[in-house]
Amino acid sequence: MTARRGPVAMVWPGVGGRHRAAAVDPPRPAPGEALVEVELATICGSDLHTVSGRRPGPAPGVLGHETVGRVVRLGDGPAPRDVRGRDVAVGDRVAVGIYAACGGCPRCRRGLPQKCERLFKYGHAPLAEAGPLSGGYASHVLVRAGTPLAVVSPDLPAALAAPLGCATATAVAAVSAGGADVAGLNATVCGAGLLGLLATAMLAGRDAAVTAVDPDPGRRATAMLMGAANAVGPADEPPPADLYIELSGAPAAARSAVARTATGGTIVLAGTVSPGAPLDWEAQDLVRGLLTVRGVHNYAPADLAEAAAWTESAAARLPVEALLGAVHPLDDLDAALAEAARSASIRVGVAPRA
């Protein structure tokens, strides 16, 4: 981008419209808040669904919620703590969580901050309510109190750091919902987008035999690089799964879950969010099959902590170059979104300083 004096945000006007750059007065963070200068934002599939009209979204608003950057200013008072218990300081490189929670409502007290009764989600809020520095497609993000943050090493590739607060932490939550001991189990992972690829690597690292299911041959090949024992198309028959994780968002993958799960197995549904997929399972199939069905949507702070630790330990083994395609300048956001929608890249990036 050209030189600028203050923050700038890319405002999405609604379906069919082009983003416009909006200059922003430098904000003063309130107590518990942080101003983060964006290093890289990656384009999540949910943003593609929003700009295409498939998923409801804020208009006008600032989209983007997979973000890594550096803390440039903190509010007065005690510093916020990251998900691994350290005080956040100016200069820290942080992965920003997808939401902010109040910490005091009944859901927060039950350990479900991702379903807080006063939940705020980055990149999912109207401009008039949230302000312009409320999404990742900006030069800065004003991080609210109650946001899970993960301080990460300067050496961690940005392609792995940016998705920590969405895809990676959600993959951790999905894998965790399948049970603690997966060694020796047959696991089917539906979808070889970033969520599915990360879940595949996590499960393979815990000695599960993973079959990845995806219609795209290139993504199936990437799943093999991530540790899958096998990779097949949706029309193929994987072995009966002890653990079946749906991360593709394809309605057929959710509908076929019971038929493809072994007796006593676990089904985790995390991909079919918007639009929904009516299911035609019979109750007796669950009862006679002794099946467990778990729904996962977003994650708890502990999942982000595990995601950061896992990513740091696995980074040297992951095919980073296969996970991130082109990185566009922030003011080229519409071209970046168009490329992400049509290309085979797992993620496309947007960087203010590209």
Explained architecture:
There is one protein chain. This protein is α/β, with parallel strands linked by helices and 354 residues long. Helices cover 26% and strands 23% of the residues. The chain contains twelve helices and 17 strands. The strands form four sheets. Strands 3, 4, 5, 8, 9, 16 and 17 form a seven-stranded mixed sheet that branches. Helix 5 (167-177) packs across helix 6 and helix 5 packs across helix 10. The mean pLDDT is 95.
Blueprint of the fold:
Layout: E1 8-11, E2 20-23, E3 34-42, H1 45-52, E4 67-74, E5 93-96, E6 99-100, H2 106-109, E7 120-121, H3 127-130, E8 140-143, E9 149-151, H4 158-161, H5 167-177, E10 186-190, H6 194-205, E11 209-213, H7 217-225, E12 230-232, E13 241-246, H8 251-255, E14 261-269, H9 283-289, E15 292-295, H10 301-314, H11 320-323, E16 324-329, H12 333-342, E17 347-351
Parallel strand pairs: 10-11, 10-13, 11-12, 13-14, 14-15, 16-17
Antiparallel strand pairs: 1-2, 3-4, 3-8, 3-17, 4-5, 5-9, 6-7
Weakly predicted, low-confidence segments: none
Work out the helix count.
Answer: 12
Helix share, percent: 25-40%
Could you tell me how far the N terminus lies from the C terminus, measured between alpha carbons in angstroms? 7 Å
Observed structural traits:
354 residues, alpha/beta, seven-stranded mixed β-sheet, 26% helix
Short description:
With 354 residues, the protein is of the alpha/beta class. Helix content is 26%, strand content 23%. The chain has twelve helices and 17 strands.
